[in-house]
Amino acid sequence: MKIKNQKGAISVFVLLAMLFFLVFIMSAYAITARKVQTQTMTLSQLQYYYKRDPATIASTKYSSTSIIPIYNYEQLKLAGTNTYAVVDNKVHFFKDTGEYQLKANIVIDFDNYFSQSIDNIEMLDWKVDAPSGETPYKVASNGFNIYYYKDGAYWKLISYQNLNSTGYSFTSSTPTTAVRQKNRYSIMNTITGYKYDENKDGTQDYYEFMLIYNNGTSNSSTFSPGSYMRWRQNQSPNETRTSNTPPGFANITNCLSSFGGLLKSSNTNILYSGNNTNEYQIGILSGGTSLKSNGNNYHSKYYLFARVDPR
Asked: Average model confidence (pLDDT) for the chain?
């Protein structure tokens, strides 16, 4: 009697067990089917690509242009480094013998970008339109420029020098000849084109300059982005000093009382200086070993900028 009474329960248990195994088998089949489908699709794709011309495959990802476009400062840093980078949605090889071309003005926020030691800063203006033989690669300006933004104004780097390296000396012909090298840079030969047009009426009103030294003494490498002098003057720095201050000289920011604008130096080892006693030195010639600002302060680097209106 007891077995007969349990027949219904046993039937239900057997039915549930069969349903469980059926669901398990169907699930396993579905997973296997998906794997086979994926493998079939992958195999089909591989067959498709292997049948194509390798050059055609590469052209969908890698650039075939011989001249690499440059749009920003980071891309300019890569020029000649034998590394890959994506520009215009294409992978480019920035080879050491490559050709490059600016495709836009590059504007750099000076204080935000250069917030580290001055010895870790490399101005890259020298790379653009560098003379033949200076680098194995070429970067053409293509009508564009590099500008720096600081103190509420835009600036063009017109001269710098790094005395912590070899081959840093300028020559007496520097004021009339452009110099574009890694450790020394000058476009003072074009200074007359950098008078600032304050009224934007097509006339050039005055020169406005910003001078930055690396801080400290004895060639210290400590650098503070806030340490600079900014002023204006009417006279070109390539002219001879006839008084302690050139016509139209006016302090704008941080100029010390002993500073009198930038003009040709009477010191035969220096191109430019900032007063009658040849302090605030710019552009060391052969034989010079340090840059004197004022008093007993000596420096190993300087950067000179002219204010511009990058319209």
From this structure: 81
The structural domain count of the chain equals 3
Q: Does residue 180 share a domain with residue 160?
A: yes
Q: Is the pLDDT of residue 292 over 90?
A: no
pLDDT-derived band at 118 (thresholds 50, 70, 90) equals low
Pairwise CA distance, residues 48 & 57, whole Å: 11
Domain annotation covers residue 278: yes
Q: 296 with 172, same domain?
A: yes
Closest by CA to 283, choosing from 274, 294, 273, 297, is 273
Indicate if 124 and 220 belong to the same structural domain. no
**Alpha carbon 207 to chain centroid distance?**
26
pLDDT digits (tens, 9 = 90+) for 198-212: 888 877 789 999 998
**Cα–Cα distance, 259 to 160 (Å, whole number):** 19
Span 91-120, average pLDDT:
83
The whole-model pTM stands at 0.76
- Cα 245 to chain centroid distance, Å, stands at 35
Tell me: do 223 and 204 sit in the same domain: yes
Q: Buried (b) or exposed (e) across 250-268, using 16+ Cβ within 10 A?
A: eeeeebeeebbbbbbbebe
107 in the same domain as 68: yes
- Domain residues for the domain of 245 are 151-311
Q: Which residues pair with 213 in a beta bridge?
A: 302
- Same domain flag for 204 and 232: yes
- Return the higher-pLDDT residue of 40 and 267: 267
How far is residue 166 from each of residues 189, 214, 289, 302, measured CA to CA in Å? 23, 18, 11, 16
Position 46 in a domain = yes
Alpha helices, DSSP H, located in the chain: 2-51, 54-59, 73-78, 110-113
Cα–Cα distance for residue pair 25/28, rounded to 1 Å: 5
Of 110-114, 194-198, 221-225, the poorest mean pLDDT is in 221-225
Dist CA 297 CA 280 (whole Å): 10
Does the residue 56 lie in any domain?
no
